[in-house]
Amino acid sequence: MRAAIEMQRALHEAMTHGALGACLPPGTEVTLGIGLHFGRIEMGIVGESGRWDSSVISDAVNTAARVEGLTKTFGAEVLITGELANRMAATGAIQTRRLGRIEVKGRGARVDLHEVLDSLQPALRALRHANAPKLAAAIVAFEAGLLEAAAEGFRGCLTTDPTDRAAQHYLQLCAK
Questions:
Q1: Is 1 inside a domain boundary?
Q2: How do residues 139-150 score in pLDDT, each as one tens digit?
Q3: Which domain holds residue 156?
Q4: Which end of the chain is more exposed for a tag (fewer CB within 10 A), N or C?
Q5: How far apart are CA 71 and CA 136, in angstroms?
Q6: Do residues 137 and 111 share a domain?
Q7: Residue 116 · residue 4 · CB < 8 Å
Q8: DSSP for 20-43?
Q9: Are 24 and 30 in contact (CB under 8 A)?
Q10: 172: which strand partners?
């Protein structure tokens, strides 16, 4: 978790004050989405004589990869599953906001998804933190099938933070 947060902070620093930002055309943004999950893995060496490679396989690895793919949908830098969020909550080490139970390819059950706020720039972190209770209430309404109430809640989130892609995503789902 700390590595994911530090990777995002290093990317922000490189884009703002480092050579990376200076090398790119104006207006270009480099983003990195990180997905994390907790679970058992199988790790080993595979291959043949002269060609060896290490590999990690398991449902946990597949789930983390699918969660990483959702970072684009939700506009999140770091997404974690509920299993990991529950383990981290006991330490109080990170701030998150719940993004709901999401269908993930390759899993029968939906996955509880959380956005990690700690890697965000301070102004954006404050907006997302302020929106967290409104977003949580709107997601509860959405999951209960109360689409009008949910849509109103998501619009309220977008009033506070027009860049909140999680609220935008859910508002589009309400419209469908």
A1: no
A2: 999 999 999 999
A3: 120-176
A4: C
A5: 18
A6: no
A7: yes
A8: HHHHSPTT------EEE-----EE
A9: yes
A10: none
Per-residue pLDDT of the chain (176 residues), as tens digits, is: 889 999 999 888 888 877 776 777 877 788 899 999 988 888 888 888 888 888 888 888 888 999 999 999 999 999 999 989 988 877 777 889 999 999 888 777 889 999 999 999 999 999 999 999 999 999 999 999 999 999 999 999 999 999 999 999 999 999 98
Please give the helix or strand (H or E) that residue 170 lies within, else none.
Answer: helix 165-175
CA 103 to chain centre: 14
Other Cβ atoms within 10 Å of 27 Cβ, number: 5
**84 vs 60: CA distance, rounded Å:** 11
Answer whether residue 11 is part of any domain: no
- The answer to whether 97 and 136 have CB atoms below 8 angstroms apart is yes
Distances (CA, A) of 76 to 9, 16, 68, 101, 128: 14, 19, 9, 16, 11
Cα→Cα distances 41→58, 63, 124, 157, Å:
5, 11, 34, 38
Same domain, 106 and 41: yes
Helices of type H across 105-163:
122-143, 147-160
CA 63, 135, 71, 87 torsion-angle sign: negative
User: Which tokens go with 79?
Assistant: 């997404």
Q: What is the spatial distance between Cα 11 and Cα 18, in angstroms, rounded to a whole number?
A: 9
Residues in the chain: 176
